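**User:** Here is a favour to ask of a fellow structure person. Please take any protein you like and set down a full record of it. No explanation is needed for now; the record alone will do.

**Assistant:**
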Amino acid sequence: MEVNYDVPVDFERRLSNPASSSAKLTVVIGDTSFLEEKGLLVQSCEYFQALYRSGMKECYQEKIHLECLQARGFLIALAILRGEQPILDTSDDIVEAIECAAFLQVSPLTKHLINIIDSDNCLLMYHTAATYGLMELYHKAAQFIRDMYSDFELEVRRTLSPELVSYVESLTPCTFAAVGAHVACADNKTVHAASRTICYLDDNSDSWDILTDLPLEASSSLAGVTVLDNILYIVGGVHGADKEVVDASFCFDVTTNSWTKIASPNQLRYNFSLTGHDGRLYAIGGECDRVAMSSVESYNIEKNTWGFVAHLPRPGTGVACTKAIGRIFVCLWRPMETTEIFEYIPNKDTWQLLTTLIRKQSYGHCMVGHRDNLYIIRNGPSADFLRCLMECYNLTTGQWTSLPGHYANSKGSLFTAVVSGDSVLTLNRSMTLEYVVDGNTWKTRRQMKGFPRSGSVWTFLLRLPSKKTV
């Protein structure tokens, strides 16, 4: 291509703030033309960012031909850039989307592909990402396969090259881990030291082994606990009968086996929900001085700072919270007998009512996401917590379905459920249960040793170093 170095003097300003430019660009792929805002493309695609910094003559053209793409892949990318959640229900859709994400370096499209990895498409995602060099998707798809390797091993060895098989097998699978509700130590004295531990379930020996001890200042009682990018975060909590708020927050890095103290939220809180998404933590609702709150704070992990974001529509304590296909959801109760599901939309900083569930004498107490389904686990009628009932809300169709049967808390507390691949792991003191999710049924797959602690418990998944890999 011919190079023209006479870049307009205001070009860098327009590039740094592409939304200020309303110029249109025609992108031609094969016999299909797309008329789009140049700013949208420059803002989200590294290909166009590099092109418009190059000073080449294409910087000034109103039409660009892309010879190496399929029109369908570019159409999917445009839908993502507009904030849509397109369904990729064919192999061609997935292959062409990966091709476009790799060629144009469309980060939002790559994130969307990662969010929709499942047991039906993970092998195709992995192989295609390797072919086109989309390394982030390549790694995430390989991790997903590794977590379900007992189900996939025969197909992996039959369909993938030795190099791809070797990479999957070199990865560490997720491990089921838990911590009980323990208060901070008073005056730096060790209180119930034997129980102030984070444990993981060793599949080989069917035993709960100690991973690490909680820091002396940390409390997991009514604290916020979550894992993001394989780092465990414990924020806030209480100690003492008077529920004195703990002004200390920590993160644990399993690769270095070390704890680090991090900034605490601006508003001290307990009995709140903590979730991680896209480099940030969100502390949602909770209590302070026994008063329920609607405030929400976001923690920027890179900057170690907290800032307030959009409040919940109303105060909520211990609200059920989960993620599905890269989106954040919470359950809020509204008397009488109403459970409302809200979605937090980060780029708009708003909470949006998604759907409402009304069930007699029952509220949603736990929620887990699997594929594009939200599973709402609720108490039985008359607050019978020995009977868990379950409803499924499909994000794509907007339809509710009641799952058949019931699930007894005496066998496995579903209020602590976490999802790994197509499995849901639950536990209580008596046993750990693994369910296999198959549409509108949860089938018991295996029973393991119960968690040797009484009271409330937090559960999560971690990728442990090889010496502790199960």
The chain is about 20% helix and 35% strand. The CA atoms of residues 91 and 364 lie 36 Å apart.
